[in-house]
Design the sequence.
């Protein structure tokens, strides 16, 4: 072997194609922004989440007919409440946090949050309870659902004190203004506003082209924020006019929430993106994406310090994050890692480089993705999409080892894209892909070093990783870092080699595994003139 080849480190990884779409919720790794993923759970489909006003309890409920009361600081379960009458569609804590109300089909139930004891039941003849909201002083609770009215209850007696008419259509969302004098609701495509003591709406706004899925008050009683179709809209309620429209999710909005202190706003879309925003400006401060599950509901902690997300089953259906509000507000734009500018690369290829750079920029924070990924293992079996299972060699042991190593690593420089090295990756991917084989030696006898030197000249040291049967950028990088069954963890060594400064990527088809991704690395590289 030549001296140059001794410096060229090679490693191969392949998994069956079922590994292409594992759950990977993206907390973007940037120091001082998102602290960590605290908890992931499989509760069945989660349809309602609520934090207590003091931030000491987090209630999670859904199709399993159970309310899980968790500690927000670590996600551990304190107690559970069995709800006998079906799926819980809505949750709300009283203003003092002592009571928890659940909304089901044709019933409301009031529970002591400290003990889980049932206090009161309220029959709801109009059908499903879709949303609940307490007035800031705790005297009233509003319940919206499939009927043509929003019902108001006095919380001292739980007697109905009034109705807010929706003019025929059910209300899917309801919220009191911070001053407690006004209520806003989403009904069909409209936003309705009521004075608390008046049954008929004082204002009706045609808000969205389709269903208005959520609405809430902004940083002052005169501003309402609504979510529907693919838009987030800020409204001047006095004039009934739109202040601004945001269409940055790239998908249909499905959920909206604001923290109790009005410091943060969060929105989610059906393309699995979650944006954390400035509540007055709507500016996207932070983006979480690639959850691989449909988001059902969201909640922010009262001091904007936690974010909880509920999703559809199967698999992980609940995720709890610890947030750093000061770090979020210090950000500019969407903190999702630097975009890779290279028009010769596909989006997936650019994303593979960006994932490398996110991992290298802050390895301990990137370990949060591994912790989330760990929840999909049962022993040595990894749960894939559509209920399929993947047999691994080491199971969670390899994941835990990777987490431990990343938590000790220091930041390292980013990798810059190289066209010549990407062409070398393309050459090898095409060669072995069409033949359905794996290996670092080409059918013409070429090595990674040879292929990189066809299109330029590498300097210092070089390496190559190959991943087969994985078609998602984050999944590719996660599996390379885990390096299940690979002695010496060659893939991980290549990704976290601080001497490497340039990289090339090509993603293509593979005759046996479905897809192949070839990644080349070097300390330096001189491009051949083209």
Sequence:
């Amino acid at each position: 072997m030549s001296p140059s080849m001794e410096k060229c480190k090679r490693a191969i990884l392949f998994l069956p194609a079922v590994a292409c779409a594992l759950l990977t919720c993206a907390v973007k790794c940037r120091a001082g922004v998102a602290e960590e993923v605290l908890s992931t759970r499989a509760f069945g489909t989660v349809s309602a989440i609520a934090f207590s006003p003091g931030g000491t309890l987090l209630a999670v409920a859904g199709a399993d007919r159970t309310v899980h009361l968790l500690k927000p600081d670590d996600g551990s379960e304190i107690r559970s409440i069995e709800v006998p009458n079906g799926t819980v569609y809505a949750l709300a804590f009283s203003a003092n946090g002592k009571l928890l109300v659940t909304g089901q089909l044709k019933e409301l139930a009031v529970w002591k949050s400290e003990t889980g004891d049932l206090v009161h039941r309220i029959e709801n003849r109009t059908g499903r309870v879709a949303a609940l909201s307490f007035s800031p002083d705790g005297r009233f609770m509003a319940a919206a659902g499939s009927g043509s009215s929003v019902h108001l209850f006095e919380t001292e007696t739980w007697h109905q004190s009034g109705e807010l008419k929706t003019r025929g259509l059910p209300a899917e969302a309801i919220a009191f203004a911070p001053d407690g004098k006004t209520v806003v609701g989403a009904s069909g495509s409209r936003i309705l506003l009521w004075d608390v003591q008046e049954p008929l709406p004082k204002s009706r706004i045609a808000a969205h082209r389709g269903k208005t899925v959520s609405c809430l008050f902004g940083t002052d009683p005169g501003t309402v924020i609504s979510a529907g179709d693919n838009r987030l809209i800020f409204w001047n309620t006095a004039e009934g006019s739109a202040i601004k429209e945001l269409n940055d999710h790239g998908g249909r909005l499905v959920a909206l929430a604001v923290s109790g202190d009005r410091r943060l706003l969060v929105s989610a879309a059906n393309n699995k993106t979650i944006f954390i925003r400035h509540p007055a400006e709507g500016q996207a401060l932070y983006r979480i994406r690639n959850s691989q599950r449909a988001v059902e509901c969201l909640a922010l902690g009262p001091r904007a310090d936690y974010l909880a997300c509920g999703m559809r089953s199967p698999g992980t259906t609940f995720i709890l994050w610890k947030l750093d509000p000061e770090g979020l507000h210090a950000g500019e734009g969407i903190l999702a890692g630097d975009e890779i500018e290279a028009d010769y690369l596909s989006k997936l290829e650019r994303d593979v480089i960006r994932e490398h750079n996110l991992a290298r920029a802050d390895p301990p924070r990137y370990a949060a993705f591994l912790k989330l990924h760990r929840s999909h293992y049962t022993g040595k079996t990894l749960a894939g999409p559509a209920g399929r299972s993947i047999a691994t060699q080491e199971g969670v042991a390899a994941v835990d080892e990777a987490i431990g190593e990343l938590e000790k690593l220091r930041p390292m420089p980013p990798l810059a894209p190289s066209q010549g090295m990407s062409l070398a990756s393309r050459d090898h991917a095409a060669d072995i892909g069409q033949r359905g084989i794996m290996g670092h030696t080409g059918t013409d006898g070429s090595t990674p070093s040879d292929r990189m030197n066809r299109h330029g000249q590498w300097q210092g040291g070089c390496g190559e990783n190959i991943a087969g049967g994985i078609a998602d950028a984050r999944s590719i990088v996660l599996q390379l870092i885990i390096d299940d069954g690979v002695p010496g963890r060659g893939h991980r060594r290549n990704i976290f080699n601080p001497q490497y400064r340039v990289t090339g990527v090509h993603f293509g088809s593979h005759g046996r595994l479905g897809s192949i991704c070839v990644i080349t690395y070097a300390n330096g590289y001189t491009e051949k003139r083209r």
